[in-house]
Amino acid sequence: MEKFILGAVVGMAAGAILVANNCKLRNLVKKNQEDLMEKAENYIDAKLEQLEKSGKEKKSSAKSGE
């Protein structure tokens, strides 16, 4: 999923550079790219938090099993 998001962002940037000829369109594209990057960062942060929680749960269950 992360590779797809990164590919979409790079594709948007490349397409924006080729297509955007006026200031309004460039500003719109920049705003959309920033929104997409923010969503991607939030998604990645959520995944990292899930991994950290599952790691902590495994450690605590291993300690209680001893």
Description:
It is a single chain. The chain is mostly helical and 66 residues long. Helices cover 92% and strands 0% of the residues. The chain has two helices and no strands. Helix 1 (2-19) runs antiparallel to helix 2 (23-65). The longest helix is centred in the middle third of the chain and has 43 residues, at 23-65. It is rod-shaped, with a radius of gyration of 19 Å.
Keywords:
single chain; 66 residues; 2 helices; 92% helix
Please bin the fraction of helical residues.
Answer: over 70%
Number of strands: 0
Shape, principal axes of CA atoms:
rod-shaped
The N- and C-terminal alpha carbons lie at a distance of 37 Å
Estimated structural class: mainly alpha
Order of helices and strands: HH
Detail the topology: elements first, then pairings:
Elements: H1 2-19, H2 23-65
Helix pairs in contact: 1-2
Write a short abstract of this structure:
This protein is mainly alpha-helical. It has helices at 2-19, 23-65.
